[in-house]
Amino acid sequence: MTERGLEQKVYVNFYACRDCSVRDKCTKSLKEPRKMRRWVHEHEIDAMQQRLDDNPEISVVRRQTVEHPLGTIKMWMGTTHFLMKRRKNVSIEMNLHVLAYNLKRMMTIMGTAGLMEAIRQ
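That's the ISCps6, transposase sequence above. Prediction below.
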């Protein structure tokens, strides 16, 4: 089953619904149990959440490594929003900003001549 472009798996548990104490609040059907929908890759999100719960300092490291480049790119863009509209165009605009950021970082690290030599190879 597909819902909003995401492949869903439908779960039904007849026995759990039959004996549930809040069944009358959950479903109006007398015969049909409640059908639960879950994204087929939801287990990956659950595993990631479990890793974050087990090791909360991961988010601190992520903030230090990811937020800085994004903050720099946002600063370059100014306080304006994206110039383009629609997802495809905004994606292209963001890709150009990231490319410019990466090129500027590489020029800082390797120097312009070093970067040109690395590109030629």
